[in-house]
Amino acid sequence: MAANSNNVAVVMVPFPEYGHQTPFLHLSRLISSYDIPVHYVSIGARNQELKRRLQGSNLDQFPNIQFHDLSIPSARATTAEKEDEEEEEDDDYMSYFASLELLGEPLCAICHELLTTCKRVVIIHDSIMLSVVQGVISITNVETYIFHVISAFTVCSLFQQVSGSAENNDLFLPLQHHIPSFKSCYPPEMLEFIKMLRDWTFKSGEILNTCRDIEGPYLDALAKQSEKPLWGLGPLINPVYLQNDEYSASPKIVSHRCIEWLDKQPKNSVIYVSFGTARTFSSEQIIELALGLERSEQKFIWVLREADKKGNDFTTDIPKIELPTGFEDRVAERGTIARDFVPQMEILAHPSTGGYLFHSGWNSFMESLIMGVPMATWPIHSDNPFNDVLITKVLKVGLVVKDWAHRDELVKANRIENGVRTLMTSIEGEEMRQRAIALSQAIKMSVNDGGATKKLMESFIAHITR
After folding, report:
1. Domain limits, the chain
2. Fold designation for 245-443
3. Residue in 84, 126, 308, 313 annotated catalytic
4. 126 among known catalytic residues
């Protein structure tokens, strides 16, 4: 199905943080494959960071994608950069959001320029970037679509709490003792933003990075509440991993010592441990985690690094996090510590990987699910606790290691040991694996030609090129 590239141009406006930019790029690829020009607009430094971090992604294969490297105007640049570095320490995003609003003017300029060569401009923007796109709604022949990079379950839960409505109680009442409160996950300033997002009327539709096989009931609930069309176009991950069921059939994208080590391990014998790039644990917690992994007697790959800093995620000058004395020697035969970048998708796709201990991040969850890998959850911030409920209580493809209700407490080694053992060696853990594998197979069928998600993508393309 080809689209007329002179009819419409698509402008992507992600929130400039890696976990948000990645699904935007994967959606850009899909849209560009229909011969539609895509303009990817973000802060220049973050665009460059994104390109460096891509695993096995040759952007030369997507000539229809053009990157626009913007900068925050000089009057606010120093402040914004400082806040960007500190956002991971104190969760105070609001000043940073205010500085991002200054991207609205160059975004309008891009739209005006595009309209000299095409009939319409379709803007797909991160829900967080709502204020940035407000200026374009007055431009004739510009449409805006909100892209939620979090789960439908989280969006539904947040809207439910903000509205105080009894709507969808049949979905949430059975989980009421598990779903976290909005106030426990987000700063109070975000409450007004969520209300504004829920009531925003200037959108032409909404997109979510999920699909019916994962979140059908929650997509339906959101569709009922929306007056505009809604599409679940996920999972938006590296397409290589959506095409092959067998690891041997997938091209080996990245050469890394962790992959070489995995090649020598039995099937489903290794737990992959990684908590994303936005937080660093305390020294005390690192010690408990190390002892828990050691006492579990399971094979593991542990990604152990400081939280990423802006533009610094691939430098070799990374502070070394201290481990218990003698730990690395004692676990040398069955564990490996990675203090640098690792090819996460390749690790999760490897047949030797049998479990994933992680922060319940949405992108990481979908990567694990697509690979049929069950999970042990340890939510850290924002949407993580909501994903934790979906993973462990709804889909039942994982178990809890750290409960959000005890988020301020130290997780002791014995709890980590028990969680890892249960996931990797118990009947319960194997049942989770089988559920994850079944979902993985259903999702892969759905994104192939003739599948439900593929048809939905085609309906979205037809909608924006009408």
Report:
1. 8-238+445-465, 245-443
2. Rossmann fold (3.40.50)
3. 126
4. yes
